[in-house]
Amino acid sequence: MRDNGDMAAFAEYAEACSATLYKTAFLMVGDHQLAQDLVQEALVKTLMAWPRLNDRENLHAYTRRIIVTTSISWRRRRSFHERPVEVIPERHGPDPTEAVVTHDAVMAALGTVPPRQRAAIVLRFYQDLTEVQTAEAMGCSVGAVKSQVSAGLRRLREKLGSSFDHVTVSDQGVTS
Fold first, then answer.
1. Are residues 113 and 66 in the same domain?
2. Whole-model pTM?
3. How high is the pLDDT of residue 2?
4. How far apart are CA 55 and CA 58, in angstroms?
5. What is the pLDDT of residues 148-160, one digit of tens each?
6. Do 31 and 67 sit in the same domain of this protein?
7. What is the pLDDT of residue 15?
8. Where are the alpha helices (DSSP H) in 82-141?
9. Same domain, 68 and 108
10. Which domain holds residue 141?
11. Is residue 152 part of a domain?
12. Nearest C-alpha neighbor of 170 from the set 158, 153, 154, 155
């Protein structure tokens, strides 16, 4: 445990050099509050090492080095670049929760489609194969693929109902 003499010496050191350390920290991070946090963290680390620090003349250099290395490690963190804002910006584009609900409904409906029709739909639209490639994969003619896809899509539309009229089959798969 540290004795009162060590604590008094550290408090005196911290008070004497805080302004200089703050300037260094501010130049490192460019933000007043982060600079204050950085100085506080550097002083805590210095306090933890205080009993081992025999060369008190280089104490300022030691603490400044902590500021530099700590600021570098902070910048490496993904969260360092996040900044609070007054107003959260509105999201643009479709609601992601709607996409999940739509995806779940389409997957459930796809499970009710007969196996050959499902295979044709999956190969054509989810795997993005051409009709010829789908026919080769299924071991049937191109006409059979067209027929299976058409029947399968009709069945999907019946299962999904009018509430899913906005769901379309695109080159990327079933989307909303």
1. no
2. 0.46
3. 60
4. 6
5. 999 999 998 888 8
6. yes
7. 94
8. 96-110, 115-121, 131-138
9. no
10. 96-175
11. yes
12. 153
Residue tagged 């798969």 (tokens): 173
Residue 91 DSSP symbol: P
Q: Which two tokens stand for residue 27?
A: 């130049």
From 34, 58, 81, give the residue that closes a domain: 81
Chain mean position to CA 58: 42
CATH, residue 15: 1.10.1740
CATH number at residue 147: 1.10.10.10
Cβ partners under 8 Å of residue 72, min gap 6: none
Residues 75 and 121 both lie in one domain = no
> Which residue ranges in the chain fall short of pLDDT 50?
1, 169-176
Task: Supply the DSSP string of 40-90, one letter for each residue.
Answer: HHHHHHHHHHGGG---GGGHHHHHHHHHHHHHHHHHHSGGGG----SSPPP
Distances (CA, A) of 50 to 16, 18, 46, 77: 16, 16, 6, 28
| Sign of the dihedral through C-alpha 40, 45, 50, 56 | negative
Residue 171 falls within a domain, yes or no? yes
